[in-house]
C-alpha cells in the first residue's frame, strides 16, 4: 500500500517488555508520517472462526492491561502522538498480516536470540516478514527486557530491483534517528561472481589512470551510461569524472 493511503503505524502487543519497546520505537515512525499509532493485542485462536469459543473475560482483561501498559510506555516518551488500541482474535501472525493491508508499517518486538536459537525470528515475526503487505520492523530487546541502544544503521547496496527504495528507507531512518548509516556495497562482488574469469580492480572515484601511463595499465575503454554520456561534451577539466574525465580512452555508451 502507498503510504499516502495508509491509516496507521501498527504495533503488535502481547504484554511483554519487548512489545512495549517496539511501541516506543514506533512513536517516531508514526509522528514522521503524521499517522496514528495503532496498538493491537491478539487473543490467539479465540472467536476468529464461526463456532469457535469466544474470548474469556480473563483473556480480554489481560489484553486490556497489556494495551494500557504499552500506551503508558508510549506516553512516557513525551512525544505527542495519537494512539489507537484494539483487541482482536485469531492467529497473531495472520491478524497482523491483515492489519498490514491498511498500514504504513507493522512493528513487533522480540528478545534477542542467540546463535543456538531455533531461527532468528519467532513465528509471528517470521509470518509477518514473509507475508505482510507493508514494511515490517522487528525490534529486538535485550534478554532482560531492556531496550537495545541505537547504533549504526546498516544497509546493503546491491543490484536488486528494489534496492534504491531500500537504501532510501535506510537514509530516512538515519535522518529520523540521528544515526550513522553504514552502506555495505555488494554490487561489485555480485558482478565478480557472475564473471569469475574476468580480473577486477577496485579503485576509489577519481583515482583512475591518467595520460602517460604505460600500455596495459591506462584506461583503454570507458563504459558509461546515458547520464554520463550527457556530461561528455561539457567536461573540460581532467579528473572531474571518475572515468570519462580522463582523456585518450575509447568510450562505449550504453543505452537501454
TrEMBL record:
Residue ranges of every copy of the UspA domain listed in the record: 7-140
InterPro entries in alphabetical order: Rossmann-like_a/b/a_fold, Universal_stress_UspA, UspA
Record family assignment: Belongs to the universal stress protein A family.
Listed name of the protein: Universal stress protein
